[in-house]
Amino acid sequence: QDVAPMDTGENATPTTNSFKVNGIVFNAHILKSGHWPHYEKETVKLPSPLYDCIELFQKYYCARTEARVLRWAPTLGKGVLESTAFIGNPKIGTVELTVNTYQICILLMYNEKEEIPYQEIYDGLRDQAAPEGTMYLDDESMKQLLLTLCTKRYPLLTKKSGENGDVYALNVNWAPNKRQKTLPLPSAKITAKETRGAVHKAVEEDRKHAIESAIVRVMKHHRTLSHQHLVVEATDKLMQLFTPEPRAIKARIEELIQREFLRRDAEDQSLYHYIA
């Protein structure tokens, strides 16, 4: 094959979440859901070699951690492709391309043919058997993605007009000036304002949990406490992380009462009791 996933070593082992499958070195990065960055939850139809890697790791991981569930975010991935297709520079036989998952999927299509219509590329990244509502790249984002493969600096593909729309051809005459190349990523889809909003929302959710945890710890220790003393002690416990607003603490107290962690005293509404 002209374009193939890179083989980076013989010592990859499943114990380090890195292993080798049919010549592909696959690395899985596992984080708890709260530690992932904000990203568009889009998906992509992976080529069979990459899908096989995921299937193998899924079986390996789930057999050892039965209580956990893996949720894949393949569009956050990246990889290195080795290619001997580009012959413009005879001094460089094989080029190593560091690319993201979308770019990998597109470039691997050129193992089958040298010219591919835009619509075929667009459809090729979508799984027709996927559940309704599955999110994929939209038309504008797809064109931005293809543009990263057609830049003046990295002209891996060339675009020309065809009878039924644009056609993208593999530019075998590309002459890279060095063996290793890192391709640019498409422009971010979300604005700075949207990013700040998502981060602020995530921080607020984290703080809600932290406040509730502090309240429960205080009440578990005292069993019965007045509203004022509870606010003071909960604030004291949270000061190393952030300074909570009294109204935020009051809101979390009300939530804990509804969930039956706490209850108000029947005679004194400013007095709380911890429910074991």
Automatic annotation (TrEMBL):
Which keywords has UniProt assigned to this entry?
Answer: Isopeptide bond, Ubl conjugation
Q: Output the SMART domains linked to this UniProt entry.
A: Cullin_Nedd8
**InterPro entries with a match to the protein in the record:** Cullin, Cullin-like_AB, Cullin_homology, Cullin_homology_sf, Cullin_neddylation_domain, WH-like_DNA-bd_sf, WH_DNA-bd_sf
State the signal peptide span: none
Q: Which domain of life is it from?
A: Eukaryota
MF (Gene Ontology):
ubiquitin protein ligase binding
Any coiled-coil regions, as ranges: none
Annotated GO biological process: ubiquitin-dependent protein catabolic process
**Sequence ranges assigned to domain Cullin family profile in this UniProt record:** 26-123
Q: Of which family is this protein a member?
A: Belongs to the cullin family.
Q: Which PANTHER family match?
A: CULLIN
* Record's protein name: Cullin family profile domain-containing protein
